[in-house]
Every structure is written in C-alpha cells, then in structure tokens.
C-alpha cells in the first residue's frame, strides 16, 4: 500500500508537464500581423496584440482593445524577437487569423516571408493572407466602428467571400505547385467619413493582387474580382444586374448556389477551356414591366442573367489572361490532371500557353423564386406585361 | 510457459492494428508523398502485402509450434547454438526498434512541449508501458481494447469535419509516371507492416485459436484501409504542399473549423498518437522482455521488465543521436531491417521446418 502511494505521487510529478505550462495571463494573443518593407533589406513587423482587460472593463468607451507593436528586423523572426522585448507576455500566434503583407513588400517579393509562419507551430493554416494597398501597418491602426479591431473586419468580410480567399495553407500550396502564379486579396482603408476623426474607419477588400515569381505585378479591381471569383469557383451569394433583351429597365438576380467547372480540352494542338457555371437563385429586384411568372419570361430572364455573368467573367478573363498573363485561375492544374503528358511538355513556359488558351462559356442560371409580389411594384396594373 | 494469461482473437487484432497505424499517423502521408506524389494512396496497398506475408508466416509457424514464440521455435528448428545467435539478434533489433519508436514519439511531442526534457517524455511513456507489461498480456489486450475506439473516433471525426475543405481532384492524374513511384512510396510502410510479425509473441496466448487468422487478416486490412483513407484526406486537403509538411495529419486536424468555435482539434490527434504509441511500445517492450526470458531460459519475465525499460531509455540516446539520423534510418535502413527480421528470416525458418518435417507434437496434442 505504501509502495502504491509512493508510485502515485511519482506519477503525479509527471502529469503537470511543468516545463511547458502556459498560463493564460502570461501570453499575449496576436490578432493580426502586418509585414512591411522598410528598406530593401529591412522589414518591419507589426503585431496587433489583444488587451484582455479591455473586455472585462468593457463600458463602450472609445479606448482601443488592442495595442500595436512595430519593430524592424532582418527577417520576420528577427523582428519578432525585438517585438517580444517590449511585450511583457509571451507572444502567442495561435489566434492570429489575419496576415497582411504591405504592397511594397509584395512588389519586392513574398518568397522570404512565408517560411516563418509555416514553420512555427503556433500559426494556423486557416488564417487569411492579404496584401494591403500602401503600408500594412496602417490597416491595423484604425478603429472600426462595428468590430473590435480591423483584423476582425477583414476576416468577416473574407468569410462572406467578398473577394478571393487565400489561407496560409493555400499560399503554401501555390508556392509548391511551381506555376509561378499567386493571387492574394487586397485590403484598403475606407476614406474616413468624418475627417476630424481619421481613425474611425474600416478596411475593406478592394480587389486582387496578382503575383508572378513571388513578386506582385498587378492588381485587379473589385469589379474584375467578381468575375475572378466566378472563375475560381469561389463565388458565394453573387448579385447580378442585367437587362432583358427588348425590355426597358433592369433585373437583379441573387444566387444561393454557385458551381464553376473548368473542362480542359486539347483539339488538334489547340488548347481550349470550357468554363461551365451553374447557379441557382432569386430575383431580388425587377425594374421591367414583366411579371416574371411565366416560363417564357423566366427563360428570358435566365438568359439575360447568363449573359451578364458571362460578360463579367470575360472582363476578368481578359485582364488575367491577356494583360497580366498569369494563371491565377488554376487552368494549369486542370490541364495537368487531364493531359499530364501534354502539360509536362509546356510546363516551363506555361504562362505563354495560358495566354493563348481559347475559353468558351456555358452559363446556366436557374431562377427559383421571384420574391413576394406577383407583378412589378411601383407600376399601375395596366402597364404590366403579362 | 512464461505467459499464463489468455487473450481473445479480437484483442490480438486491436493490439497489432495500432502497431502499424501509430507510426503511420505521424508522418506517413508525407513520407509516401515524397516518393509517390499524388499516387500515394496506392502505396499502402503494396506495403500491406508485407503485412499479409509476415502475419501468414507467424500463423503458419504457430500452427507447427503452438505455444512457442520465434525465440523458442528457432531453437526447435535450428538447434541450440544458431538459435542463441539468432535470438540475440532478434532481441537487439526489438530493443533498437523500440528505442527509435520512443524517440520519434518524444521528438514529435517536443515540437509542442519545447522546454520539457526529452528524457522525461520518454521516461513517462516507458513507465506506463512497463506497468502494462508487468500486468502481462491480459492487461495489454484489455487496454488495447479499451483504447481502440479512442484511437479511431477522433480520426473519423476529424475526417468528417474537414470534409468540406477537401478537393478530390488532387488525385488526378492517376499514375502520371506509371506504377513505380507508388511502389517506391511503399518501401517505408512496408517496414511498418512487417512489424505485424509481433503477433508471433501473442499467438501462444490466444484463447480462441481458430479465429487467429481472421483477426490478423482484418487488422492488416484495417490498417491498410486506414492508411489509404488518411493519405487521400491529407492529399485532398494539402495537394502539392503535402510533401512539404512533417506532420500532415496533425495539420489536417488543425485545419478543422466548425462555426468558428470548434477548432484546434490537433490536441485530439496528439491524444490518438499517444494512445497508439502506448500500444505499440508496449508490444515491442513485451516482445523484448518475453523473448529475453525465453532466450535465457528464465522461469519468469517479471524481473526483466525494469532493466529492459532502462535499456530502452538508454538506447533512445545511444542508438539515436538525432532526429535527422532517425529520419535517414527510417527511410532506408529500418524498413530493410524489419523486412529481413520479420518476413524473410521467419519465412526461412518455416521453410526449414517444412523441409525437415519438424513440428512440436507434444504441444499440439495438449492443445488439440
């Protein structure tokens, strides 16, 4: 019996894991990190650290809930070690969900700035990665009116699929794929509504940054990004406004299901891609005189919406394929899967081949419902075309 | 007989399934992906042939020599002196293999418990395993049975929760460079599957002998299927980045996120890994202890438990200077060693026994 007690006591010593115990009030939770280029050899790392006390004292005051610490360094780890010097708690990356690279750094090249986050055991692969217009640090500094801190704003916008979404894992995959093409969402600060209080604004997703060989070479506007996310099969709750042929006024459609399939073909040495878009949704606004409740009228509407989606997508395709000539549409992956031998032969100069691919579209829109009224509101009944 | 406990065929299956899977859970997918790229799901199929073979040999040997482990039956087949040498080699291989397993486990844990001394992580595991071995085969069988759901369920849950993020298209193009890469990828898991020969130490204690083959068969098939599924899931999630990561299954678990509050499942995967390693290390530990007792003609294996445990701990440092050497050894030498000792030598012994017409009649009469 005595022996057993001794043994149990001995075992208890092993249970604590004493060397690595971490108390919650000994760690500083990083909520976002921003990496900027200071001079070509020096980077500037800014981390936004959550202040736990601000939650318990939460009386709706305008005080910041986070602090920002910025340090310069030769690389991220070096800057990080300097940040730690003036944060009294151990910096913890496990809750960091937003990483923002500054535009200058992105144009200089991202290759050296992924390893730290991929190698470190704490950062989550699901965290989102962005490129900021201007300095990344500025994004962290504002105090958004609706959320607790700016990182939360961009994260929630990303969850709503406003732009393309790229996680740390996606970024690693894009580098590993070796096709030299990367796209990251851009974030930008909204112009402050009240100029006397310039900090009361929030970041928003303003488009897409396009990279070749790890260096940012161009951007796509928010409008073009809409087409891009259709192409990348990331479309989510899209709003499409278009004109029905031979009708006046506009109709707006909102999707609830979206699916894009890329079907590669090689015919007589010509590389072709068929983009098939299927979407289901509602009519949310009807500015025409049609009731939209007969099969013929719905068919017309669906055709109009398909045309509109196609033109949106063509706009994005034009910019990506003909102007930037960077395959951020994953065409390479599709061809690799279906035509491994042919693809291997052109892998080296893929971006050249990519810019010459003929793309066809097959857009299918399915209007499920048209809302709570049977005729267009705001018109006398006599004007309605039944 | 040294071991008087009895276990069921089901428990045997549950003991040898984690022997293969616990190592495969750690870095299996990326090790196979490095060779086989996106054909890595085929590799376990080839590798499992080694498992079927070694288990079949173990069962055939057990049929001829019921109640005997490889150490004892080698003496029956080859005579005293060669058997002594062979027995020593077996014990040495088991000891060294066990040390590598414990060290791999500790190095993995040390990624997260960076400040805890390795010796403590290893010592804690060996202590627990020594208690299991002290309890004998019945205790090991039962703990394996109790822990089995805990080993499987978190894995299934992880796959279910990460499902929406998977892209099955990553499987294509199938057999891009022919069959060879997937066969190359099977080399390392082949070593793990041959470890199933440890069933040889369990079969003498089996209570329902007629189900032995069925249970072992299902354990091999189960391990093979689990590996195929796990390989596919990690490939579907990580695609081209799969061979870059060290611990793909843990990364997959970390990727789980349900409604922003159910996340960080990696602790569950670590728990699975600890349970699996517990069973695996106990198995090797038990085989070493029992084998040594048989080799030395002792009347009980109990006094050997602590010394052998101490030796395992020492071998963790002596035999394994660093993680990189483990990695190199695990990629080339260890699979070859395991296949030699757990497939070819037993097969040679079986062949010899058949040619010389040797079998243990007295034992058979007793049990039959």
UniProtKB/TrEMBL annotation, chain A:
Gene3D superfamilies: Nutrient germinant receptor protein C, domain 1 (6.20.190.10), Nutrient germinant receptor protein C, domain 3 (3.30.300.210). It is a lipid-anchor. Keywords: Germination, Lipoprotein, Membrane, Palmitate, Signal. This is Ger(X)C family spore germination protein. Residues 206-371 form the Spore germination GerAC-like C-terminal domain. It is found in: Membrane. Residues 20-188 form the Spore germination protein N-terminal domain. One of its GO terms (cellular component) is membrane. Its main location: membrane. One of its GO terms (biological process) is spore germination. Transmembrane segments: none annotated. NCBIfam families: spore_ger_x_C. InterPro entries: GerAC_N, Spore_GerAC-like, Spore_GerAC-like_C, Spore_GerAC_C_sf. Belongs to the GerABKC lipoprotein family.
From TrEMBL, chain B:
Coiled coil: none annotated. The keyword Transmembrane helix applies. Keywords: Germination, Membrane, Transmembrane, Transmembrane helix, Transport. The keyword Transmembrane helix applies. The chain crosses the membrane at residues 12-33, 45-62, 83-102, 108-133, 145-166, 186-204, 216-238, 270-292, 304-326, 332-355. GO terms for cellular component: membrane. GO terms for biological process: spore germination. It is a multi-pass membrane protein. It is found in: Membrane. Belongs to the amino acid-polyamine-organocation (APC) superfamily. Spore germination protein (SGP) (TC 2.A.3.9) family. This is Spore gernimation protein.
């Amino acid at each position: 019996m005595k022996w057993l007690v001794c043994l149990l006591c001995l075992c208890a010593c092993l249970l604590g894991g004493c060397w690595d115990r971490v108390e919650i009030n000994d760690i500083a939770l990083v909520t976002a990190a921003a990496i900027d280029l200071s001079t070509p050899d020096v980077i500037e790392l800014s981390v936004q650290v959550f202040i736990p006390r601000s939650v318990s004292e939460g009386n709706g005051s305008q005080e910041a809930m986070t602090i920002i610490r910025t340090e310069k360094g030769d690389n991220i780890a070096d800057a990080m070690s300097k940040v730690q010097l003036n944060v009294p708690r151990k910096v913890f990356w496990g809750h960091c969900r937003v990483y923002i690279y500054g535009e200058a750094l992105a144009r200089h090249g991202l290759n050296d700035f992924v390893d730290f986050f991929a190698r470190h055991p704490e950062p989550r692969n699901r965290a989102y990665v962005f490129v900021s217009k201007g300095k990344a640090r500025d994004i962290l500094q504002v105090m958004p009116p609706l959320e607790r801190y700016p990182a939360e704003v961009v994260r929630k916008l990303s969850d709503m699929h406003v732009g393309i979404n790229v996680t740390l894992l996606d970024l690693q995959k894009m580098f590993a794929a070796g096709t030299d093409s990367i796209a990251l969402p851009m974030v930008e600060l909204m112009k402050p509504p009240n100029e006397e209080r310039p900090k009361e604004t929030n970041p928003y997703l303003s488009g897409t940054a396009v990279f070749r060989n790890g260096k940012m070479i161009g951007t796509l506007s928010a409008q073009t990004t809409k087409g891009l996310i259709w192409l990348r099969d990331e479309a989510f709750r899209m709003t499409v406004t278009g004109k029905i042929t031979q009708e006046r006024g506009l109709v707006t459609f909102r999707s609830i299901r979206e699916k894009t399939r890329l079907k590669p073909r090689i015919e007589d040495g010509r590389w072709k891609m068929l983009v098939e878009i299927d979407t289901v949704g509602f009519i949310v606004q009807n500015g025409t005189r049609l009731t939209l409740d007969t099969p013929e009228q719905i068919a017309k509407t669906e055709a109009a919406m398909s045309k509109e989606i196609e033109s949106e997508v063509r706009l994005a395709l034009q910019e990506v394929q003909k102007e930037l000539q960077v395959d951020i549409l994953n065409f390479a992956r599709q061809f690799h899967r279906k035509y491994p031998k042919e693809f291997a032969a052109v892998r080296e100069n893929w971006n050249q081949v990519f810019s010459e691919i003929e793309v066809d579209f097959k857009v299918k829109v399915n209007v499920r419902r048209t809302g709570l009224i049977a005729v267009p509101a705001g018109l006398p009944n006599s004007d309605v075309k039944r | 007989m040294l071991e008087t406990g009895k276990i069921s065929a089901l428990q045997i299956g549950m003991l040898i399934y984690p022997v293969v899977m616990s190592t495969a859970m750690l870095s299996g997918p990326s090790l196979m992906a490095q060779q086989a790229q996106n054909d890595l799901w085929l590799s376990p199929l080839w590798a499992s042939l080694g498992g079927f073979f070694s288990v079949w040999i173990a069962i055939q040997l057990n049929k001829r020599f019921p109640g005997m482990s490889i150490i004892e039956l080698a003496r029956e087949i080859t005579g005293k002196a060669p058997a002594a040498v062979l027995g020593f080699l077996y014990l040495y291989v088991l000891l060294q293999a066990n040390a590598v397993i414990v060290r791999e486990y500790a190095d993995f844990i040390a990624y997260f418990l960076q400040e805890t001394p390795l010796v403590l992580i290893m010592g804690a595991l060996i202590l627990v395993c020594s208690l299991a071995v002290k309890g004998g085969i019945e205790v090991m069988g039962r703990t394996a049975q109790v822990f089995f759901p805990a080993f499987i369920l978190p894995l299934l849950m992880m796959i279910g929760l990460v499902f929406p993020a998977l892209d099955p298209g990553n499987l294509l193009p199938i057999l891009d460079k022919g069959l060879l890469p997937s066969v190359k990828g099977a080399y390392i898991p082949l070593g793990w599957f041959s470890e199933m020969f440890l069933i040889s130490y369990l079969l003498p204690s089996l209570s329902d002998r007629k189900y032995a083959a069925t249970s072992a068969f299902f354990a091999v098939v189960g391990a093979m299927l689990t590996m195929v599924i796990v390989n596919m899931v990690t490939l579907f999630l990580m695609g081209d980045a799969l061979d870059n990561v060290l611990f793909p299954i843990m990364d997959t678990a970390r990727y789980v996120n349900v409604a922003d509050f159910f996340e960080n499942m990696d602790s569950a995967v670590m728990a699975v890994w600890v349970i699996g390693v517990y069973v695996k290390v106990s198995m090797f530990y038990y085989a070493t202890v029992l084998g040594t007792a048989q080799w030395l003609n002792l009347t009980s294996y109990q006094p050997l438990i602590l010394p052998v445990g101490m030796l395992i701990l020492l071998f963790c440092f002596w035999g394994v200077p660093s993680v990189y050497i483990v990695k190199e050894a695990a990629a080339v030498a260890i699979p070859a060693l395991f296949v030699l000792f757990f497939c070819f030598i037993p097969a040679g012994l079986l062949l010899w026994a058949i040619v010389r017409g040797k079998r243990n009649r007295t034992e058979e009469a007793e049990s039959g």
